């Protein structure tokens, strides 16, 4: 059941990724690269003076998993504080490597829990976490992030 939801969600976001654009006036930008798969993307955020992420977007090319993950991430980040974004990064990373069981442990992941089975496919984990590492790098003012 969950596998089916996962596949449908990935395909749908791959077909029509949300916030797939260069964000004009972005305050935080980073470039992420996953040489293992060839995923290559940029993450943009506009953080206001109150520390709220007003907008998040991405562009680039990559496999369906990397694009779907980035698309869902930009949706999840909108309206979050930087501290909340860092918490989500931490939770998503743990989910992707199988250390967080969303059914059993409290979390803020919401729809992002569709990725909860991905730890069973180690080669795909880096695809799923690429945009998140890139977002985290952008908040830390790191310009380029590689999964290697
Ligand atoms: Zn990939």
Descriptive account of the structure:
The protein is of the alpha+beta class and 148 residues long. The chain has a single domain, classed as Sufe protein. Chain: A (Alpha-Beta Complex). The chain has four helices and four strands; from the N terminus they run H-E-E-E-H-H-H-E. Strands 3-2-1-4 form a four-stranded mixed sheet, covered by helices on one side. Strand 2 and strand 3 form a beta hairpin. The radius of gyration is 14 Å and the shape is globular. The site of zinc ion has 8 residues, from helix 2.
Sum up the structure in keywords.
single chain, 148 residues, alpha+beta, Sufe protein. Chain: A, four-stranded mixed β-sheet, 4 helices, binds zinc ion
What topology emerges from the helices and strands here?
Elements: H1 2-15, E1 28-34, E2 39-47, E3 53-61, H2 64-77, H3 82-96, H4 122-139, E4 144-146
Parallel strand pairs: 1-4
Antiparallel strand pairs: 1-2, 2-3
Helix pairs in contact: 1-2, 2-4, 3-4
This protein binds zinc ion.
């Amino acid at each position: 059941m969950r596998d089916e939801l996962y596949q449908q969600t990935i395909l749908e976001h791959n077909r029509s990724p949300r916030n797939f654009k260069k964000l004009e006036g972005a305050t935080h930008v980073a470039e992420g690269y996953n040489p293992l798969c060839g995923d290559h993307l940029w993450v943009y955020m506009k953080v206001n003076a109150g520390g709220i992420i007003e907008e998040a977007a991405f562009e680039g090319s990559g496999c369906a998993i990397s694009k779907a993950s980035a698309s869902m991430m930009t949706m999840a980040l909108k309206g979050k504080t930087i501290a909340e974004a860092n918490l989500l990064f931490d939770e998503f990373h743990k989910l992707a490597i199988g250390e967080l069981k969303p059914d059993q442990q409290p979390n803020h992941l919401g729809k992002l829990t569709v990725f909860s089975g991905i730890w069973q496919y180690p080669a795909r984990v880096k695809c799923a976490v690429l945009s998140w590492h890139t977002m985290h790098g952008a908040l830390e003012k790191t310009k380029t992030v590689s999964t290697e």
